[in-house]
Amino acid sequence: MTPQEAAVRPRIEGEREQEILLATLDVLADVGYDRLTMDAVASRAKASKATLYRRWHSKAGLVIEAVMLHKGPATSPDTGSFRQDLIEMSCGAGGLTDAKPLGMLASIITALNLDDEFAERFRRDFIEPKVAIGRLVYERAQARGEIRADLDIDLVTPALAGMVLHRIFLMGEHATPDLITALIDQIIIPACRPQARTPHEDKETS
């Protein structure tokens, strides 16, 4: 919502706002983003459509605010261990093993290609903060010397989520802590750890 919209539209506060947002998630889970309508949400929430439009100017704005209920922690874990930070970030609330945001993502994934307003706001408000939290985990590990100083953090940060979502949505698997840990141990950490110097390299620099 823009500052101008916030200034002219009355705000639905507290429990009533939560009821409408939860009703939105229920409709989203039932029919998906494409078939979700303000009428359907109003009916589920036992509210008038005019009430919804006074608060949310579009379906995209309403759904974005609803999915933000499952955005997960606003800060990154800081255990002092790169491996443990990745596990906690991925397996906690709002992470890759949390069924609620994964179910929500399944309901909106087509909208990312079909609704430009929704896609822009979802990436800005939901995805970018998650990427920033993940990036901080890599930056801390880099500062501790756990991962390579020349690692392209922006390239590797989304890799774990990408592999997990591929296995969920394309291969029909379930995201479990065991799967997450295996991907971290066998792919992410080996790809990120400092490269061991070979005897030949040591000889050249001696």
From TrEMBL:
Organism of this sequence: Nocardioides furvisabuli
rRNA processing recorded as keyword: no
Domain of life: Bacteria
Family annotation (Pfam families): TetR_C_11 (PF16859), TetR_N (PF00440)
Domain named HTH tetR-type: residues: 14-74
Entry keyword set: DNA-binding, Transcription, Transcription regulation
InterPro entries per UniProt: DNA-bd_HTH_TetR-type_CS (IPR023772), Homeodomain-like_sf (IPR009057), HTH-type_TetR-like_transc_reg (IPR050109), HTH_TetR (IPR001647), Tet_transcr_reg_TetR-rel_C_sf (IPR036271), TetR_C (IPR011075)
Keyword Lipoprotein included in the entry's annotation: no
Feature: DNA-binding region: 37-56
PANTHER family in alphabetical order: HTH-TYPE TRANSCRIPTIONAL REGULATOR RUTR, TETR-FAMILY TRANSCRIPTIONAL REGULATOR
Coiled coil: none
Name listed for the protein in its UniProt record: TetR/AcrR family transcriptional regulator
